[in-house]
Design brief:
It is a single chain. This protein has 58 residues and is an all-alpha fold. It has one domain. The protein is built from 1 helix and no strands. The protein is elongated and about 75 Å long. The N and C termini lie far apart (75 Å). The relative contact order is 0.06.
Length: 58
């Protein structure tokens, strides 16, 4: 009984390693393509992303 448990655990580890390997390749190939540098602190990425300055409530 103990040997069956050990064998099953080993097979589960190999299956998990295989799934993680496939997911690693998938994310590496299909992951985010955004390689633009991040803006510095206090800078907006684009002019449209700047906060509105003179907005009045209605």
């Amino acid at each position: 009984m103990r040997q069956s448990f050990v064998d099953g655990r080993q097979q589960a580890r190999w299956a998990g390693a295989a799934v993680m390997g496939v997911l690693l390749v998938y994310v590496a190939l299909r992951g985010p393509k955004n390689t633009a540098p991040l803006p510095a602190d206090g800078e907006a990425a684009t002019p449209e992303a700047r906060p509105a300055e003179n907005v009045t409530a209605r």
